[in-house]
Design brief:
The chain is an alpha+beta fold and 377 residues long. 47% of the residues lie in helices and 20% in strands. Helix 1 packs antiparallel against helix 2, helix 10 packs antiparallel against helix 11 and helix 14 packs across helix 15. It is globular and about 70 Å long.
């Protein structure tokens, strides 16, 4: 069982790190301890180019981090197969590959095994057509494989990491000093509002004032913020009222709120309580209890590999082999690239032929090409 007090403190630190990025290393250390891991990182991968970057990390040798993104990312079973994951999902190695197959791979023997790592749990924070951002916690040999308790812990904290990362993308603050807060917020493209517990606006940036003038998503009555979407307005009112009680209260009420504009466009409001650490200092000059950031909702477009997998009901390993055939060629080359036996490649290839209705590798290449989005080329 996970200690509620420890969870509450960790959640508060996660949101503090959204405003003060120097705290991410400490937060990742706390996260690893909370869920039962030996290292943790916030990272991004581009699934098309097989490239990526670790934004923040704890407990990992930087040399291994660099070698992963320089070389081993393309051998990692998770790289292609995480296409199956949705935002908010918690995934581990068993979701991609059987453990007895994993330990035969080049990735395991050259990259995981020297570090005595056996497994990892990743929470999907954000995803586009070709890339994704995750929080990952690694298991050492002494920790054992990812278990139900670790998955439960990751489910408790991943939504908060997601909100913090989304907020961090909107307000790239180097610090949360109140003296420079207003000037920083005025440079933010999303609508930003600082509000008191009654929903009254105590500060708005330039983009926020523009939204209020258009009155399509939001309007004011006096200085009180009103959402045109009645149901969303009630949710916002409840959230502002509870923001002063702390992070847990706002988390329960919901930090991300969908909004519908008069013209049918969809927006998302992200609400950050100003009740702890750097956030309390940031809101002090305004007597605000919450910061709200509003931007137009982005359309999630599935990548071509994801569309192929869904269309033909391909298992993760089948998709992995299919993509490798397209990228590196025949069975021997695929076996070497993926670090698995040629017989294993042939087995998955035969299943892929059956599901897709083709019987030649050249036809698989044509099939993948047919799913390509010309707008991405």
């Amino acid at each position: 069982m996970h200690d509620p007090g420890r969870l509450s403190a960790l959640i508060g630190d996660i949101y503090d790190a959204a405003l003060n990025p120097t705290q991410w290393s400490k937060v990742l250390e706390e996260t690893a301890g909370f869920v039962g891991g030996s290292a943790a990182l916030l990272f991004w991968k581009d699934l098309a180019s097989r490239s990526g970057q670790a934004f923040y990390q704890w407990g990992i040798d930087p040399i291994y981090v660099q070698s992963y993104f320089d070389k081993y990312i393309k051998f990692d079973p998770a790289t292609s197969c995480q296409l199956f994951a949705r935002v908010g999902d918690i995934i581990s190695m068993k979701d991609f590959i059987a453990y007895d197959e994993l330990i035969e791979t080049l990735f395991y023997n050259e990259w995981m095994r020297p570090q005595q790592w056996v497994d990892a749990a990743n929470g999907v924070l954000d995803k586009s057509a070709t890339s994704g951002a995750m929080v990952g916690v690694v298991r050492h040999e002494r920790d054992g494989l990812v278990d139900d308790e670790m998955l439960q812990g990751m489910r408790l904290i991943t939504p908060h990491f997601r909100r913090a990362v989304l907020i961090g993308k909107i307000i790239d603050l180097k610090s949360a000093e109140a003296a420079s807060l207003a000037d920083t917020f005025d440079g933010v493209s999303a609508g930003m509002f600082l509000l008191d517990a009654t929903g009254h606006i105590v500060h708005a940036n330039a983009a926020g004032h523009t939204m209020l003038r258009k009155a399509s998503v939001l309007r004011t009555e006096g200085m009180r913020l009103i959402a045109n979407d009645v149901q969303a307005h009630q949710t916002l009112t409840d959230t502002f009222a509870t923001a002063g009680s702390g992070d847990a209260a706002v988390g329960i009420k919901g930090v991300a709120v969908p909004l519908l504009a008069r013209d049918g466009e969809r927006y998302v409001a992200h609400i950050l309580p100003l009740t702890s650490g750097a956030r309390r200092r940031a809101g002090a000059s305004y007597a605000a209890v919450a910061a709200m950031f509003i931007h137009k909702a982005a359309l999630d477009t599935p990548s071509p590999p994801e569309a192929i997998a869904k269309t033909y009901k391909l298992a993760p390993m089948e998709l992995r082999v299919l993509l490798a055939v397209v990228e590196v060629g025949g069975v021997p080359e695929v076996a070497e690239a993926l670090g698995i036996a040629e017989t294993t490649v042939r087995t998955h290839l035969q299943r892929t032929y059956y599901k897709t209705g083709v019987n030649r590798q050249v036809d698989l290449v044509k099939l993948v090409a047919a799913f390509s989005n010309p707008l991405l080329n």
